[in-house]
Amino acid sequence: MTQPLVLGIDIGGTNTSFGVVNRRGEIIAKGSMPTTGHDTVEDYFTAMKQVLAPLIDGFGKENINGVGIGAPNGNFFTGEIVFAPNLPWRGVIPVVKTVGEALGLKTTLTNDANAAAIGEMMYGAAKGMKDFILVTLGTGVGSGFVANGQMIYGHDGFAGELGHVIAVRDGRKCGCGRSGCLEAYASATGIVRTANEWLDQRNTDTELRANKGKITAKLIHEAAAKGDLFALELFDFTAKILGQTLADMVAITSPEAIIFFGGLAQAGDLLLKPVHKYMEENMLNIFQNKVLLLQSALPDADAAILGASALAW
Amino acid sequence: MTQPLVLGIDIGGTNTSFGVVNRRGEIIAKGSMPTTGHDTVEDYFTAMKQVLAPLIDGFGKENINGVGIGAPNGNFFTGEIVFAPNLPWRGVIPVVKTVGEALGLKTTLTNDANAAAIGEMMYGAAKGMKDFILVTLGTGVGSGFVANGQMIYGHDGFAGELGHVIAVRDGRKCGCGRSGCLEAYASATGIVRTANEWLDQRNTDTELRANKGKITAKLIHEAAAKGDLFALELFDFTAKILGQTLADMVAITSPEAIIFFGGLAQAGDLLLKPVHKYMEENMLNIFQNKVLLLQSALPDADAAILGASALAW
Asked: pLDDT of A13-27, one tens digit each?
């Protein structure tokens, strides 16, 4: 007796991980390969085929329902990765066409945040929900908005750029060239940036000072967990900006829950409690005390594979 | 030969208008009654039945597919009007239950902005569009967000409160009790408020000064159309705040078009040209030069009835 399976592929800046997943969201085989180190994108896809073809044959191609791929700037409609700043290749990469033809399986692509949202809906914290927002707090801030049980891709497939909503008018410069984007504050890199700025401006005593220049979101999280006031204030500041912006997002899609995913979300209540407080303080009264803030329920290491795989059902 | 018909009812603060509408969006009979002047909400509904029952009988109840009602704070899910500040009644009004039972027809309710969005999709500027935003610029700012061809009602039916997105952090006081809402700037009342503030602060020569205290959005529009620099600057200021906020909304739902409806939208290009400019200036590069800004294509006087009627199909 065979069970229906899908193949999930997560194309990250450094590694590409993949797994064969069943309906219950169990990964029954997995592996990874480097994303970098290939001379051309064609070489990368050739290497991918060499790894994946035997895996697929092992389960029997007829048992694999399809391939789901999550990638930065992956476009669901065109099947292309479009100008992804964190990947080694420039321009437009026809992922669905190339991988689909190489593997001979129906292939679907979306960006990593949308993949995570679909993963949460299939196997995670959003099971049974029809209206929610998934927010990824990693190197950048990404998001997937689900309404009426469907992912909002928008007219061109690029919807859900929460990270580039202007959170602070005329604020900090963002990698996108504009100023004050949420991503410049509420990402793992954003909170580190705040930490370094404050260390320059203040004499506050904090264990983070010893790591100046090498601070990470994880170090801030660890310091805050030990009660370091400077680190706690960093979370409070970051949470205020995130909470204010989320209050505005709630006014638009009125979600049942907002689910947090990614490195900075690992901080859990240290981040989510103040985010919740500021979101409620800034919210229109009809939305108050309704929206759940949840952490991702996808197992950490496998979340990206599960998210990508969920696309293929 | 009979054609399928629906009944559209628009409950406004002063008048309730209604019409019998065919599939092509033609109003083949219409009328209105006062919303105010009834001792109780029950009296209002009794008066409504006295007016509508003969109209329905005239066309034959069997030919009327249903009743669509647009009302401020109308909730699609519960069929209730919930705490509408501009209606004469307080609290929760079970509109769908009351009207549905009184008329013996399937009845659907939504807020006026959502009704307008559905109207544009059925008969107007959004025909054939699956992803768009309708923005009403009237006494307040309302909105209807459509994604994947479906209205976004959100988990509780209250989605689409664009007017209460914070456009100016710590800005002007809004009727909702918070500060800096888009509605406090970009509505017909918002632009009048700006005009009055500026007239107090400046000595600029403008034909509006003669009307101080009695300024309306229409007067500002007329002055701007004649080239009054003060009035043009009012449009520019209002457009900047609206354009900035819309750029953020585009990042979330990536619409094909944004359609403007309501009193202030009558200003047409005087408003929409600068809105477009500021929206583009503030937009993430992947969204630039893609989103159409359009004026409502529903005939003015009948737009609300058509919007409400579209719900009933």
From this structure: 889 999 999 999 999
Separation of alpha carbons B283 and B257, rounded Å: 14
CA dist A193 and A172 (Å) reads 10
Pairs across A and B, CB distance < 8 A? 138
Is the reported ipTM for this assembly greater than 0.95? no
Partners of residue A69 on adjacent β-strands? A9, A109
- Partner-chain contact A159 B253, CB within 8 Å: yes
Domain ranges, ordered by start, for chain B: 5-119+301-310, 128-296
Cα A266 to the chain's mean position, in Å?
12
Could you give the residue ranges of the DSSP H alpha helices within A78-153? 95-103, 112-123
Distance from C-alpha of A39 to C-alpha of A80, rounded to nearest angstrom:
20
Q: Given CB atoms, is B82 within the 8 Å cutoff of chain A?
A: yes
Count how many residues are written for chain B.
313
Architecture of the domain made up of B5-119+301-310: 2-Layer Sandwich (3.30)
CA distances from B5 to A42, A129, A174, B54, B297 (A): 58, 35, 53, 15, 21
Residue pair A6/A19 in contact (Cβ under 8 Å)? The answer is no
Q: What is the pLDDT of residues A119-130, one digit of tens each?
A: 999 999 999 999
Which chain A residues contact residue B255 at CB under 8 A? Answer: 154-155
Question: What global pTM score does this model have?
Answer: 0.94
Kindly report the length of chain A. Answer: 313
Q: Which residue has the tokens 């990250």?
A: A12
Residue A17, classed as helix, strand or coil, is strand
Residue A236 CB: number of other CB atoms within 10 A?
Answer: 17
Instruction: Find chain A residues with C-beta within 8 A of B78's C-beta.
Output: none
With beta carbons less than 8 A apart as the criterion, state whether A113 and A145 touch: no
Pick the CATH number of B128-296 from 3.30.750.24, 3.30.420.40, 3.40.1440.10, 1.10.357.10: 3.30.420.40
Would the pLDDT of A300 be above 80? Answer: no
